[in-house]
Amino acid sequence: MIKGAVVVRITVLFGSPRPDGFTAALLREFLTDYPDAEVTRFDAYELNLLPCVACDRCREDGRCAFRDADDLFAACETCDLLVLASPVYNYGFPSPMKAVLDRAQPWYHRNFERGEADPARKGVLLLTAGRSGKYAFELMEKQFRVFCRELGVTFAETRARPGTDQF
Length: 167
Fold this sequence. Notes:
Blueprint: E1 2-3, E2 6-7, E3 9-14, H1 22-31, E4 38-43, H2 44-47, H3 57-61, H4 70-78, E5 81-87, H5 95-102, H6 105-113, E6 122-128, H7 134-151, E7 154-161
Parallel strand pairs: 3-4, 3-5, 5-6, 6-7
Antiparallel strand pairs: 1-2
């Protein structure tokens, strides 16, 4: 959305294996609120990130030893709004999305140990679930809030769509 001369930059982390499923529909619906935004989308299944191996390289210089998430990291650091869109899998995030969340350790070291956080950036969580999902939504929001804190992003809201098995 253009506010004055400023374009809102949105980074989307998409965590569904179904590119046209319920999670994608919820994301499309959300993005209608930002018709003029510059949107950069990362698909967790396509990224296929290596898992964090607790090597502590990021503690040294704030960078991950693995280079497979560099573009993702850069987009998350320069966006105005971070959107994570995911289905619920067994009361949690699908494993490719969980790998993205686990790789936030470099940001943790930068933002907490070095004080480089930018609280002006906002984070939004979009969730879909086949059943009611209430408990899962609460658990996943807690994880996302931690992810936001590690990235130096202020959590803004969760939008959840339960009951997709009924369709």
